[in-house]
Amino acid sequence: MNIFSTDKSRVRHKKMAVLSLFFAFALTPLFGALWSAPAIAGDLHGFAEVAAGAKFGDERAEKNDYNMAETRLQLKYRYFPALTEEYGGELSLKGELLYDGYKEELSTEVRDLNLFISPVPSIDIKIGRQILTWGTGDLLFINDLFPKDYISFFTGRATEYLKRPSNAIRLWYFRDSISFDLVIIPQFEPNKSISGRRLSFYDGLTDKIIGFESTRKLIKPAKTVNNAELSLRLYKTIKSYEAAIYLFKGFYKEPRQTLDATNRLFTYPRLRVYGASLRGPVAGGIGSFEVGYYDSRDDTGGTDNSIENSSVKYLAGYTRDLGNDLKAGAQYQIEQMLDFKAYKANLLSGSPAQDELRHLLTLRLTQLLRAQTVDANLFIFYSPTDEDTYLRPSIGYKANDALKITLGANIFSGNKDHTQFGSLEGNNNLYLRARYSF
Fold first, then answer.
1. What is the pLDDT of residues 103-148, one digit of tens each?
2. What is the CATH T-level fold of the domain 7-437, as seen in this structure?
3. CA-to-CA distance for 174 and 235, rounded, in angstroms?
4. For 121-228, where are the E strands, in sequence order?
5. Can you tell me the distance from the alpha carbon of 200 to that of 67, in angstroms, rounded to the nearest whole number?
């Protein structure tokens, strides 16, 4: 129960929840009828989902006993216009209606609204709102600097919601010698990061874990042409291996600069990233390696303790099918802080120091059971330098082609409050999702 809501507002929110449930199920046949109509030159899909998450171990967030209670309707429509006699296109729309019982509000979101065209055989273009991703990592991102939603990730929403949509222009150019993939995001779009309302977090200014009392203010970069974000990937397949080079010009996706500690003002410093990756068959499985140099443009020497230092990130990964519907994958990532001596020399007295080298290992196990109607999953993050762990177990059951039920958990543990997963230790949760697809 929201202690800041009046009785009338709670009644209104409950009515909105009932209405969202009504729309989720009552409108499904209507859209199904439109989908099957001969006049529609496209296809319609979607799902209705109910999800709930029980929280245990913390009393700092706005609500102490749960962090997810929502009903969601998603509709996805694709239309295939004939642009010319030779070339066509695809208009894609993916929209959602969500009643969020935690916030006690009804909202809508457009996750896709874009036009995909191929003006010539060697060029593809997608313009509009879209989900962007690339790189070799499994839930680890080095050269993928597109926005993420870590609140969804840590509270038990489907993994697809880790990726936030962007308003962007994407261009692919294909050649036998080398191909490239260019993304232009005209206006900066940050990660949806933890703020204390739904999940508590470590606050470096007070050196403690805080929750709903957080009052920090985030200042985004100005909406100017010079602040447009550019991402470029050059890639080529050599025999069975794909090699790629990455370039990025933009900003950190997390608020890594303190503007005013007294008034708790933070912003997103400028960033350039130069990277590379290689992926292909290794010893009966798929191996990968990725590296990225993070050039912190507002603190090139590492002497400003209010701005993130430059760094280099390395990631090696390997996945293999072990037979009997069992698949395993492992990753090893190293984050190397540059200008470490300058960082130590300018560290504020009493502030916990980061390590020059941060090591992170992951393990993914996936087992399919009962004629592949049950999928059991376990994903483990473990950092020996931070001495913290994050477990993501889940099990999904497909009752039929349309209905899937998923039970899972997010479990954090650590010996230090300021580390990535140690700071989240109070946010352990158990969640249940039921999705009906059509």
1. 999 999 999 999 999 988 899 999 999 999 999 999 999 999 999 9
2. Porin (2.40.160)
3. 10
4. 123-131, 165-173, 179-185, 201-203, 208-210, 217-219
5. 11
